[in-house]
P2X purinoceptor (Monodelphis domestica), 369 residues
Amino acid sequence: MSQVDCRTLCFSIFYYKTQKYLLTTDIRVGLLYRLTQLGILLYLLWWVFLEQKSYQTIDNSIESSVISKIKGTSYRNSSDSGNNFWDSTDFVLPSLGENVFFIITNLIMTPNQRQTTCAESPKNPNAQCSQDSDCPKGKSVIRGNGVMTGNCLIAGGDGSGTCEIFAWCPLENSPHSKKIVLENAENFTIYVKNHIRFSKFNISKTNLREAQSKSYLKSCRFGPDSMDCPIFRVGNLVNYSGNNFQAMAKDGGVIEIQMHWDCNLDFTTVCKLHYSFHRLDNSNSVSGGYNFRFARYYQDANGVELRKLMKVYGIRFDVLHLILASISADWIIPCSLRDTVISLCFSCILHHHGCHGTALHQNPSCVEV
Ligand SMILES: Nc1ncnc2c1ncn2[C@@H]1O[C@H](COP(=O)(O)OP(=O)(O)OP(=O)(O)O)[C@@H](O)[C@H]1O
């Protein structure tokens, strides 16, 4: 590189350029310019601002808590299990009041079980025997309830018997009747409290309106006429999910209570809350419904440990929430980008129109300013 080239290159970084404006009085170019400006303006106002609300941002730093409380009582006087009275402490599991809770609607109760020997269920083909050697001592019965003692208990005169087992005896009672045990479960009420907090903006919201008093809560029930009441009747919830309570209460199921928050945090915080209810388990499958077993342990007068086994059927409620929060972003309209686009377009137009280079002086509609 020659010495002159090098000096030109080095000094060029200290040069300062000014812009040169061209004014064209051609009405077609002017009209096109204004139409382009109008188009960009309309695009920004209508699409970017009104339709897309692109000036807003979504806040993902949302904290939320769900607290539930269930109330109701149920009484049943039956010939096989006697008087049975239930209140929420008995039929709600767990009692913590979380966003997932289970309401017992039906059960098979087997009281006074203790660890001793008894006959395995005769319905279990793996426990059928004709002699003691068919019941190897210490071996668990496949799909059974206990461990074989080595004795075959012959009950009938046909020589067929059932293996004796060491287990919690007596074994679990036979399946429940068609009638559900907690008949009044349909009328139980669920109170769902949901608090959400937008930690970035220190804004809190709850599904309970400030004006709602304790007496309102005592009497209100969620329904088409009172969509802002946070107390739901169990039977209605099941209906809203498109199911029949009596059918669902017999074998149990899972229902989702979905709380959909749509909050606009611009200016004043406005949140719209919408509830929807869906059944989550597949009631038509071979193993439909929802049940599990648990036991309550106690001792008799001699200090022997006993238990009351319960196979419970019921409805598990999952409270889920979707929160959509939009708020004005610290947005900057990309002015430089917009100007670049406009100027690029117009240089093309002017070029096409002959307003460039030497052609500038030959075209009377191009004025240099
Ligand atoms: N599942 C429910 N069904 C109907 N009302 C309810 C239910 N849960 C709570 N409430 C009522 O809503 C109001 C607010 O309940 P909150 O739990 O805040 O107060 P509380 O005094 O602890 O209620 P309580 O002692 O009655 O359980 C109370 O009047 C309460 O009786």
In short: Confidence is low (pLDDT under 50) at residues 330-336, 365-369. The chain is about 20% helix and 40% strand. Residues 56 and 189 are 39 Å apart (CA to CA). The pocket of adenosine-5'-triphosphate is lined by residues 69-71, 189-191, 214, 217-218, 231 (CB under 6 Å).
